[in-house]
Amino acid sequence: METPTIEQTALQRRRFLALRRKEREEHRLNLLDACLTDYERAARIRQWADWVLPTIHDEPEIARLVEWAKGNAAQLEAKSAAAMSRMGLKELFPDADDLHDPLGDPVPKHPWGL
Hints:
Order of helices and strands: HHH
Distance between the termini: 24 Å
Number of helices: 3
Shape: rod-shaped
Helix content: 55-70%
Radius of gyration: 24 Å
Largest sheet: none
Strand content: under 5%
């Protein structure tokens, strides 16, 4: 069995780094999607509450529903903020990118990808 050349070893390493960059980008997008989902729901709740408030005059049950909904929106925002602090953002967005390849992504090994 032949030992890989320095060029082959370097190419394998670059392909590994490209795969890790792709995985990291997927994690980043998943985090962003989760944050946006919570944010959008909280924004919709607040928008709905602002729309309903002027119409509830003497209906205390609806007023309590609106207050509960606003509390729910605040919880969604807090959950999103807490999730971001626990998600390892340092790992997803490091100061110095240990996966950086100054040569860019290598040519795929196969036509269908890495």
